[in-house]
Design brief:
By secondary structure, the chain is mostly helical. The chain is built from seven helices and no strands. It starts with a helix and ends in a 9-residue tail after the last helix.
Length: 135
C-alpha cells in the first residue's frame, strides 16, 4: 500500500464511508477507489486530488497531507515510507528540480559514489585481522 492509499483509507474510515460511497461522492467507479487505496493506480492529477479532497471533507491541513501523500506515492519512483523525512525531502527535491543538468547529475552521482566508497573502506578497516594466514 502507498502513502496515498493509507491516507485515503484512513480518512474514508474516519468518515465511516464505504469505497462505494466515496466513489459516488467523487463521481468515479468504486474499483478505481479500491485501486488507489491498494496502490495499484496512481491518481490522475490535480483534478482527482481536488475531487478527493472535497469527497473526504479535508481542511487546509488535510489537503496538504493529501498532496504530500500523493507526491510520495508517485509510480515513477516510490520511496519506502520507512525512510526518514529528510531522505524523502532530499529525494523529492532532486526529482522535482527540472533545472538539474547532466553535469549536475554527474556531480551528484560522483559525490554518492565517494560516500559509498568511503563507507565500504571504513567497514573493511573495521574488520578484525584473521590470524594464521594461508594454508
Amino acid at each position: 500500500m502507498t502513502a496515498l492509499g493509507n491516507f485515503v483509507r484512513n480518512r474514508r474510515k474516519e468518515l465511516r464511508l464505504t469505497q462505494v460511497a466515496l466513489a459516488l461522492r467523487m463521481g468515479v467507479d468504486d474499483a478505481y477507489v479500491s485501486a488507489v487505496e491498494t496502490g495499484r493506480r496512481a491518481p490522475d492529477g490535480r483534478s482527482f486530488l481536488e475531487a478527493l479532497s472535497r469527497a473526504l471533507a479535508l481542511d487546509e491541513d488535510g489537503l496538504r497531507q493529501l498532496v504530500d501523500a500523493s507526491r510520495r506515492s508517485r509510480r515513477y519512483l516510490r520511496v519506502p515510507e520507512e525512510l526518514s523525512e529528510r531522505k524523502h525531502q532530499v529525494i523529492s527535491a532532486l526529482m522535482e528540480d527540472v533545472r538539474l543538468t547532466e553535469m549536475d547529475l554527474e556531480t551528484i552521482a560522483s559525490v554518492h559514489s565517494a560516500i559509498a566508497r568511503n563507507r565500504n573502506l571504513s567497514a573493511f578497516r573495521a574488520e578484525p585481522d584473521v590470524e594464521g594466514g594461508l594454508m
